[in-house]
Amino acid sequence: MEVKLINYSPEPDRTCAVAALGCHSPKTSGDLIKELTEKKITRVLRETMKRGHLSVVEHASFTFSVSGISRALTHQLVRHRIASYSQQSQRYVKLDSPTFVTPPIVEKDKGTLDEYNEFMKYAWETYGSLLKKGVPAEDARFVLPNATNTSITITMNARELLHFFELRCCMRAQWEIRQMAWIMLEEVKKVAPIIFENAGPPCDNCPEPEFPCEVRNNAKTGKR
């Protein structure tokens, strides 16, 4: 899996802080931004977000390039609707060799792994055979499994990312999308440390306490 933050709003913390200030000032955000210090940015954002006024962080957006993930992951990802996605097309990109994700639990047992790999080999052999027989790639792809590697470009604003991290960094999330979410979170913290300083699963106020979580106290590590 490779996750890269390839673009983002310039000075996201500053932009969102001035948007918050502009809601309660006779001055325009264009004038207010000239007066902002780092200390004021931190204070304004923390106070605003603590009160739940998250609309101001919608003014910052972040774009990621993600590769080496499975189609099983992207089927989950696109359920986050307030976002933009551009995914590698299986209609136009022919897959010449088997490229797929193997779950860690499958890798733990040699017999299980052999069975898994044998199925993948058969799936790709069938895919290749269909292509050679003149079946269009858009139809031949029907035999490819959810494990098939894909790449995708993702753009979300900061508010949607906060929601995404709350759900997908949680230990209840599926392992692959959780791994991606934690990498994404580390990337955005580098450029917007105030907006995302408390991002992640709400372990102290878990919405699903009825479900066991063997590492709830260490969930912030992102480890399985």
Task: Describe this entry's structure for a reader.
This protein is an alpha+beta fold and 224 residues long. It has two domains: 2-85 and 150-221, Gyrase A, domain 2; 91-143, no CATH class. It is 42% helix and 13% strand. It has nine helices and four strands. The protein has helices at 12-22, 29-32, 38-50, 71-77, 104-107, 110-132, 137-140, 158-168, 175-191, and strands spanning 2-8, 61-70, 84-87, 149-157. The chain has a four-stranded antiparallel β-sheet. Helix 1 packs across helix 3 (38-50). It is elongated.
| Mean pLDDT level | 92
Percent strand: 5-15%
Strand runs, count: 4
User: Which residues sit in consecutive blocks of at least 5 with pLDDT less than 50?
Assistant: 219-224
Protein topology:
Elements: E1 2-8, H1 12-22, H2 29-32, H3 38-50, E2 61-70, H4 71-77, E3 84-87, H5 104-107, H6 110-132, H7 137-140, E4 149-157, H8 158-168, H9 175-191
Antiparallel strand pairs: 1-2, 2-4, 3-4
Helix pairs in contact: 1-3, 8-9
